[in-house]
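sorry to bug you again but im stuck and you know this stuff better than me. what follows is a protein written twice so to speak, once as letters and once as structure tokens for the fold. id like you to explain what the token line says about the fold, in plain words if possible. anything you notice is useful, everything is just below.
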Amino acid sequence: MDLEVDFCVVGGGPAGLTLALLLSRSGASVAVVERSRSMDREYRGEILQPGALALLAELGVLDGARARGCREHSRFRFVDSGRALVDIDYRALEPPFNHLLSIPQRHLLEELSAACQDVHQLLGYRVSELVLEDGRVRGVVATGVDGPRVVRAHCVVGADGRYSKTRQLAGIEFDRMDVFDYDVAWFKVPCPGDRPPDVQVFRAAGSPVLVYESYPDSLQIGFVVPHKGFRSLTEQGIDEVRAGIAAAIPPYASLIEAHLTSLSQLSLLDVFSGSARTWSRDGLVLIGDAAHTHSPIGAQGINLAVQDAVALHPVLMASLRERDPSAAVLDRFTASREPDIAKVTKLQLMQSRGMLSRGKVAALLRPRVAPLLSRTPVFRKVLDRLAYGNRSIQVAGELFVH
């Protein structure tokens, strides 16, 4: 059965569901097309910064998501050979969102989905083509277990991730930039006892490793490997890989040795940054990873996705009022967000070079430079950007009708 709505959002991740909720509360009819049939799927990003926490709280979904299970972290520490070169205390920020929150992404998505009571949620449907009229995107064809469905809309939003099918179907080129010289192999191990109180990056031997406590009772570990070097790493076998990771994080070596037993436990994230050459065309706009892709460093993914949705919401409602889904109107969103995204990319490159770079010179300078920088006003500005993003992005609650 075909469906006619004001907005068709492709992708039921943090960006797509947050946007769907905002539009629905503003009186718009919305459909979300998501290829997965449930929220019980593999996710990597699960750390929320204070800026996203504040926006989600204003939408009334944070408490419910937290109640499903999460872990608070009050500090970020960069530990090099047993010495904390960077020690950021989030409790120094203004309460109540003066912490990092590690929360399984499915908990956030389940809460957002439950709040989208008036949204048509088409789970298990894959977009196979765009509906075009006179060069304008007018909807999508989505195929699920019941066959194809046509969803027609005033505007289609591509929120379907770094490998966006929507972007591909629209013929929008994506400029991938391999500016980071690493990838990340993720895995979890049980952690019944000595849990880390912080989000930490360790450098002790070999490659850096990210470690933090994850719900429920486990450690989330991100092992940094040379870009495109995962295959050669795994060819060494699980014993060598396990020994290398254990050596890199001495406080948790026993847990690694006991619970990392198979290479199949490792999930590789291909790390790159990039941007779509345009974020919109007539009848279509891209947000989140579909528009701009980032490194996991600094835990910016979900936060950028939520802020994108909040920033796009009033632009889409204005487009609906004006009955004008042209790229000229939708580019108001692009113009407002591109400078923010450029700052994040620049910041991530700076963090990567400071914490993850290899070589004798970097190893020599890091212990001297990092502690000095952490006491400067520039460092406070960096922390503010990491924690809050663009503070001017606020929920347009005045548009809500219920």
